[in-house]
Structures are given as structure tokens and as C-alpha cells.
Amino acid sequence: MEHIAAIMLLVGCSHGGLTCEELPTPQVAFETMEDCVGALPAALGGAGAGKRIVHGRCAVVDPAWVEEDVEIDWRLTRKNGLEVHVRQVQPPAGDVIVADNTHPAETAARMH
Q: How far apart (Å, rounded) are the C-alpha atoms in residues 75 and 83?
């Protein structure tokens, strides 16, 4: 199993910032934060097509969490830009995947 120390998240927003959504990344998991940060400019450039503004961020992941359930929260604010937080959570009952995306862009979105 590969060691994961960081993840990349890309978010595309309309020019008015009224709608934002997570975008696919060329690579999600990285063995080091430096590898993720180094790959971020190319990922941002590749995702910038279309009529949207793309934000990207790398976030630290505790390598011990690879086999655990984690929650990825992201928030887009005028002051700090894209903020990404990864934390361990209790698994939902059964084999359920939960995704929650709240608008406008000033509110947090969650994915379990």
C-alpha cells in the first residue's frame, strides 16, 4: 500500500462565485506535501478551461488514517481563499457514502 501524506482538492466556481463544485484532479493522493504542492500549478492550469474560476489546495493527511474514515471539509472565503481540512470521523452505519455540498460559496461543504 502506498504512503499518503497529502491530498489535492480543486474547486471551480462561477465568476460571480454563486456556485462552486469540486473538480476532478489529475492525481488525488501524494506521498509528500511537497509533491502535491509541486503538482498544483499544472493541475490548476489543466482545470481552468470553461467559464469558471479554479481554486486549488493541498491538505495534509495523517498517514495512519489510510485505513480509516475521514471527512474532508472545504470552505471558500474572500479572506483566505480555499481552506481544506481533513479529519478522522466515525464511519456511517453500513456501507454508505455521504456527500453534502452547501451553497453559497461562503459556507462549508462536507464529504464523508
A: 5
What does the alpha-carbon distance between residue 87 and residue 105 come to, in Å, rounded to a whole number?
Answer: 21
1 within a domain of the structure (yes/no): no
Q: Are 88 and 68 in contact (CB under 8 A)?
A: yes
- Give 68 or 105, the one with higher predicted confidence: 68
- Boundaries of domain holding 19: 6-111
Residue 76: exposure state from Cβ atoms within 10 A (0-12, 13-18, ≥19): buried
The domain tally of the chain equals 1
Full-model pTM: 0.73
Q: Does 91 map to a domain? A: yes
3-state secondary structure of 21: strand
pLDDT digits (tens, 9 = 90+) for 7-66: 999 999 887 767 888 999 999 999 999 999 999 999 998 887 676 789 999 999 887 776
